[in-house]
Amino acid sequence: MPCLLVELEASAGRRELFLLPGIATPERQPDGWAFFDELPVPLLKLAPSGEIELSNRPARDLLGVAACQDRRLGDLLEGLGRSITDWLEDAAAGRGGGHSEFMRVRRDDKEVFAQVTLNRVSEAGKTVLIAVLSDATKLKSLEAQFVQSQKMQAIGQLAGGVAHDFNNLLTAITGHCDLALLRHDQGDADYADLVQISQNANRAAALVSQLLAYSRKQTLRPEMMDMRDMLADLTHLLNRLVGEKVMLALSHDPMLFKIRADKRQLEQVLMNLVVNARDAMPEGGDIRIVTENLDLAQPMRRGRAVVPVGRYVSVRVIDEGVGIPADKLQKVFEPFVTTKRPGEGTGLGLSTAYGIIKQTGGFIFVDSVVGAGTTFQLLLPANDAPEEPLEVPETSVAGKTRADGVVLLVEDEAPVRAFASRALQLRGYTVLEAESGEDALKMLKDPELKVDVFVSDVVMPGLDGPGWVSQALKHRPDVHVVFVSGYAEETFGDAQKAIPNSVFLPKPFSLTELTETVQRQMG
């Protein structure tokens, strides 16, 4: 019987040897698979895309299922904070260093947590992943007893729960405001009032986004970037933020690694850190932003955090300010904790930065000496994957010219549906409306009905967006899809990626964003 001797990384840094069956299938070598089933450690064999190819009895017992084959890892585990598919792809490509995460098992009978450690293995020239699972329920239960953990969980649940309703309301407000602006010239008396409504709705959307960033439930748009280029674009704005008393200096490693992150969110983190540094120097001073490569051959421990082996881009924001007292230093990333005077800060800036960096897969640390200054350090995983060419949308065509085509719009919120339908009709599309996935499927039973694009909300009563779209695509495989939602993409990102020719548009969206997205899907 062909077998494979593999050294796997288990929990707590332990490494163990296992004798695993080769690439044979259960039908060809049932004895080999039976041996795998009797191994005492919970193990899963995964394809890089997330499909479970093999499991043993301890793993099934831990996950609370009778069988795992033909299921995806995201169907059984949750709570990674980013797309499980991206995490698996990084592990299969050897990017990011550590590939061990604490995750919640999707079980209805009881609450179970598992530490999942991924190991890359080559079988017959094909890369597969061996996941070593260990029961971490007791450890997570102890952590949950801390007051801070309870507070973060409560606020995170609140932010995620209200985000959907708030984003639906804001979509309707901003959308109808955009429609009203189309009917008014800049010289009209009502034009300025409409602009004020739009601007304040956008401020409300930014506040919801900030709460979601804190709870690590926002939708990220990661892209390959060079921190030097990003900071060069941001320098003008940062200089305006710091004012005339403060000098801003940048220092870069000439061979800086590239990273994969959401540029807009990373800019928000840096602006928060620079503004805090400015406020710590009321009499003026220097702020230095230093970027450099960091190649860790051994895990680095900072307090309770452990940075795994790997390549990172280090970004330090250094000031000469008053510093942070020791009793507050350990609480700076907690929500509503601020060292500023009343009325000068909300206490959400650093907790938001913490949420963004952790959701990106990085680390943030702080060192401070009272009277000598503070240093915030970001560690972002390096990413050397080849950059895919981006398709630049033709904004002028999508946003201003009339188009044609048939759009099936499925949205359970009537105000959002009314705005989206009018916006698309103004651009020349024929719009068919449905308030549920079931109604959409009934309409599509007509073989004479031609549809070019589905625009669907994700979370709806009855059939959800991915559910009804999957059924519809069985008979209409060429139709492209636009999913919209007030929830973060991370909550259903794996389901959306499994649907071909689909994109995601987060709420709240503007008239232009909706029409341009549909136009690109038409193309």
Shape: globular
Question: Strand share of the residues?
Answer: 25-35%
Structural class: alpha+beta
Neighbour order of strands in the largest sheet: 4-3-8-7-6-5
Report the radius of gyration as a whole number of Å: 25 Å
Question: Mean pLDDT score, rounded?
Answer: 80
Count of helix runs: 17
Largest sheet: 6 strands, antiparallel
Helix fraction by DSSP (H/I, runs of at least 4) = 25-40%
Summarize the structure.
By secondary structure, this protein is an alpha+beta fold. The protein has helices at residues 30-37, 57-63, 73-76, 84-93, 137-144, 147-182, 191-214, 227-242, 263-279, 326-329, 349-360, 395-400, 414-426, 437-443, 465-473, 493-497, 511-522, and strands at 3-9, 15-21, 43-46, 52-55, 77-78, 100-105, 113-123, 126-135, 222-225, 246-251, 259-262, 285-296, 300-302, 305-307, 310-318, 363-369, 373-381, 406-410, 430-434, 453-457, 480-485, 502-506. Helix 6 (147-182) crosses helix 13 (414-426) and helix 9 packs antiparallel against helix 11.
